[in-house]
Amino acid sequence: MAADPIDIIRRSIGRPNLFGIPLLIVFLILFAAMIVAPLLEEEGTVLLDKGGRVGSREYDEELDQLGSPISRAAYVFGDIYCHQLTERSYQLNGNQMPVCSRDVGLFAGLLMGGIVGMFLSRRFPMTFLLIALAPMLLDGGTQALTSYESFNLLRVTTGLVAGIGLGIWTNKSTAETLKILFFHPDKREDQGPGT
Predict the structure, then answer these.
(1) Each residue's pLDDT tens digit, 56-76
(2) DSSP string, 103-150
(3) 3-state secondary structure of 96
(4) What is the pTM of this model?
(5) What does DSSP assign to residue 84?
């Protein structure tokens, strides 16, 4: 007899796990900063068109001109974290967002997955995370290794799926680790977050 999907969902949802709140706050700040930063600057003044590299800072001069410290922080984060290619980025208020479309989806997904993860009572294996990451890795990897050029809607969608999976998995793992550390000192040596 096949299991009822509604019953499986009902059994998986429990009371909110408050250990995930600090992580959720970090996800919220990251996502909000990416949305708010272009809105805080004068319309049409932020365009990052040098074709940057991940892990480096190419836009120090341009970012020093930004009026808001929140914008400056978000764009500096984006300068280090993301390539910020104009053609792969969305614009708000006529300004390029601090990160590319895939990363916007990733940060939105982290926030959504973090919220969902607070209410799920089950643990998720590493295979769940790998399945959620697979579309993004396939699309981004193919784009990086071949002449294939993805499009922004696909980028944001694969980032969103990966972010949701990563948000759920990270929330559950962090909450389990904090529970063990603070409420079950006798289990610290016996088990880890993924067991």
Answers:
(1) 888 888 888 898 999 999 999
(2) HHHHHHHHHHHHHHHHHB-S---HHHHHHHHHHHHHHHHHHHHSS---
(3) strand
(4) 0.82
(5) -
